[in-house]
Description:
It contains eight helices and twelve strands. It is an alpha/beta fold. The protein has one domain (3-235): PAC-like subunit (Rossmann fold), CATH 3.40.50.10900.
Amino acid sequence: xxxxQVHREELELDSPTMIEGLPGVGLVGKIAADHLVDALDxxxxxxxxxxxxxxxxxxxxxxxxxxxxVRIYADEERDLLALQSDVPISPSAADDFASCLTxxxxxxxxxxxxxxxxxxxxDDVPSLYGVANGDATRLLDEFDIASPAENGVxxxxxxxxxxEADRTDLDALGLVVEANRNxxxxxxxxVVLLDGVGPxxxxxxxxxxxxxxxxxxxxxxxxxxxxMQEAQDESSKAQPIGMYQ
Length: 245
C-alpha cells in the first residue's frame, strides 16, 4: 500500500515548511535540498513508498547501510522538512506520487515549497519567481517574491505536486528560478535558498560554497544530469507557453 513511513515519531513538528528536492532542470531543487540537509545536519525522518517509485536501494561511500531513494529529512527546532530524491520520478508515476505525498503533508498541515528550474540562457544572477495557491499567496508579497512575467507551465512531478495541492486545498508555493538547461546549476540553487526558502522558512544557511564548489557539485551529479537529459519528459521544469498556447 502506498504510504510515507515515519521512522522518528518522537520528533515534534508544528505545521512545518517543506522544501522539495526532486531532480529537474539544472537539478536546482535537488542541489538546494541536499545542501539544506547537510548544512543543517537534518535527521532522516521518513521514507516514501508511493506507487511507481523505483524499488532500488541507495548507499553512500563509507556508509554501511542503504536507504530507499526518496526520503524526508526533518529539523525539529526549525519546523523544517526536506524531500531528498536520488532518482528521477517517471511521468507515469507522477500522479500517484503526488497523491501519496500530498495526503501525508495535508495530515501534518505542512506548507510545501516546490522548486522548478526555468531553462534560460542567463548572463547575470538568476531571477527567482513565485506562484502559489490559497493562503500561501500572501508569502509572495510578504517576502517580495515576484510573479512570473509571462504565461507558463510547470511540468513533470513538480507540476503534478502543485496540481494535487490545489485540488486538495493544500496551501503550496512554487519557486521558479532561471537555470541552466543541460547542467547542474548550483548558482540557481543558491538563489532559491537565499531569496526563497531562507526567508519563508526562517532559515539562515551558508551558501557561499555552493558557487565556489560549482565544479565539484557538477561532477558529483553528472551521471544523474545525463540520465535527466536522456529522459527529458521526466524532468520537472517551468517554461513559457505564450499567450495563445
